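Record type: monomer structure entry
Structure origin: computed from sequence
Chain ID: A
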Amino acid sequence: YKKQKQQVTLQQQSIKDSRAVIEKQLTIEEQQHLSEIEQYKRQIAIDKEIVKLKQDIYKTAESQMKNGTITSVEYLKLFNEWKRASLTAEMDKLMLVTAKLNYNYTKGVKQ
């Protein structure tokens, strides 16, 4: 009986130790996800500025093309840069959603 009690005590301690390790790992993961979320928020703010600037450049190019001061190739290049910046911004928004989902999943696992 005494030996069984010792085994149970050792198993309980092992479970407590395992639980502590898992909780620590989950806390680290949470922090990583929060950092990722903040990174994407900052990037999205930068993306907005870039898209606005590219759009302004495109609008200027549109006028210049109508006036014949730039070629259609130059115009299309600027249009593509604007659209590429817009797509990058949308991709970063999706990455933010993914990071938030990962954070919430990790939070849910921890609780």
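Annotation 1: The mean pLDDT is 94.
Annotation 2: The CA atoms of residues 56 and 82 lie 9 Å apart.
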